[in-house]
Description:
Blueprint: H1 9-18, E1 23-27, H2 29-33, H3 40-52, E2 56-60, H4 74-78, E3 81-88, E4 95-105, E5 114-121, E6 126-132, H5 145-156, E7 158-160, H6 161-168, H7 179-188, E8 193-195, E9 200-202, E10 215-219
Parallel strand pairs: 1-2
Antiparallel strand pairs: 3-4, 4-5, 5-6, 6-10, 7-9, 8-9
Helix pairs in contact: 6-7
Amino acid sequence: MTQGLAADIESIRKICVEKSVGLLVLDSLGSACAGEPESAEVVIRMFSCLRSLGVSSLCIDHVSKEGSLFGSVYKFNAARQVFEIKKSQEEDANKLVLALFHRKASNSRLRSPMGFELVFSPEDRTMTVIRKDVRDTPLVVELGVKTQIENVLANLGKATAQDLTDELNPKSDGSLYTENQIGTALSQGTKEKKIGTNSVWFVKLPEKTLGENGRWLIQYGL
């Protein structure tokens, strides 16, 4: 594909039929559109051609500085399912953490965030993938304030609104949440219980269900 999916659609359709293609991967969506990313017409035309193939598709795209899909909102609107991937990785580390956030589901419920730790072994050129609870990773900051509160309370057992404010706000990067915002989130929760005049909060979380079956070994490279 050299001119965008719409321009090469007949050639792509022929390949899909001849090869019995069941899944089409587009990397990236911007290249497949082959036009101004802000143009609704360009994006709608591409998705129309893609659906005419009658096969499942996985479209990979980039985000803007604001964290939204780059270009026309029709990229999001035309998709059936949208997952956002975020990562956390330290310099020279042989592992990284990924989290999948389900942002849209047209015909199903939204799934809870899914976390994975990828550990690379240069010696035998393998990669181990370990399923993680996002709350136990640096990407916990990407979760909603209520989930972050639950995570802190699970570790501390009990805390005041001020304790939670101190825990959830970085010491040097400015405040992300005010004590009033945290108090509101606590009041809206169904698991929390306010006790006494010191506004001490407790939470009971369900037991984690992640087990050893959340580990895979994947060969990569040549």
